[in-house]
Amino acid sequence: MKKTNVINSDISRIIAQLGHFDTLSIGDAGMPVPEETEKVDLAVTNGVPSFMDVLNNVLEELEVQRIFLAEEIKTHNPEVLTEIKEKLPNTPISFIPHSQMKQDLSNCHAFIRTGEMTPYANIILESGVVF
C-alpha cells in the first residue's frame, strides 16, 4: 500500500510516467477531452471532488515547473485563480485562450475530470524535475 496521499492508481501511474516538460491536465466536469487523451474521471456529483481538492492531491507528488490557465479565468473565475496562485506562488503562469487550452489537451498525457461546476476551472501542469 502506498504511503503517499495519491492513492488513485491511475493518477499515481500517470504521475510516475511523466518526464520533464510532459503535461497533465485537471479540469471541471464540462471540459471536452479529446479521444486520444486518457481521461481519469473522478466526478461523482456537482462539486465532488472539487477542482482544488484534486489539484492539491496531485501537487503532493508532481513537481511542476509551469502552469497553463485559460485567459478567461481572470474574469469568470477569479476565486479559483486566487487559490491556484496561493497554492503555487512561485510557479510561472502562462495564460492562453480557452480554445487553445482545449486543443492543447490532445498533447497532455492525461486529463483528470473533477466534479467542479465553476467556469474555466482547468489547468495544464508542466512537469519539472526534482534535481
UniProtKB/TrEMBL annotation:
<comment type="function">
    <text>Catalyzes the interconversion of beta-pyran and beta-furan forms of D-ribose.</text>
</comment>
<dbReference type="InterPro" id="IPR023064">
    <property type="entry name" value="D-ribose_pyranase"/>
</dbReference>
<dbReference type="GO" id="GO:0062193">
    <property type="term" value="F:D-ribose pyranase activity"/>
</dbReference>
<protein>
    <recommendedName>
        <fullName>D-ribose pyranase</fullName>
        <ecNumber>5.4.99.62</ecNumber>
    </recommendedName>
</protein>
<comment type="subunit">
    <text>Homodecamer.</text>
</comment>
<dbReference type="InterPro" id="IPR007721">
    <property type="entry name" value="RbsD_FucU"/>
</dbReference>
<dbReference type="GO" id="GO:0048029">
    <property type="term" value="F:monosaccharide binding"/>
</dbReference>
<dbReference type="GO" id="GO:0005829">
    <property type="term" value="C:cytosol"/>
</dbReference>
<keyword id="KW-0413">Isomerase</keyword>
<feature type="binding site">
    <location>
        <position position="28"/>
    </location>
    <ligand>
        <name>substrate</name>
    </ligand>
</feature>
<comment type="pathway">
    <text>Carbohydrate metabolism; D-ribose degradation; D-ribose 5-phosphate from beta-D-ribopyranose: step 1/2.</text>
</comment>
<comment type="similarity">
    <text>Belongs to the RbsD / FucU family. RbsD subfamily.</text>
</comment>
<feature type="binding site">
    <location>
        <position position="98"/>
    </location>
    <ligand>
        <name>substrate</name>
    </ligand>
</feature>
<feature type="binding site">
    <location>
        <begin position="120"/>
        <end position="122"/>
    </location>
    <ligand>
        <name>substrate</name>
    </ligand>
</feature>
<feature type="active site" description="Proton donor">
    <location>
        <position position="20"/>
    </location>
</feature>
<dbReference type="GO" id="GO:0019303">
    <property type="term" value="P:D-ribose catabolic process"/>
</dbReference>
<dbReference type="GO" id="GO:0016872">
    <property type="term" value="F:intramolecular lyase activity"/>
</dbReference>
<keyword id="KW-0119">Carbohydrate metabolism</keyword>
<keyword id="KW-0963">Cytoplasm</keyword>
<dbReference type="InterPro" id="IPR023750">
    <property type="entry name" value="RbsD-like_sf"/>
</dbReference>
<dbReference type="Pfam" id="PF05025">
    <property type="entry name" value="RbsD_FucU"/>
</dbReference>
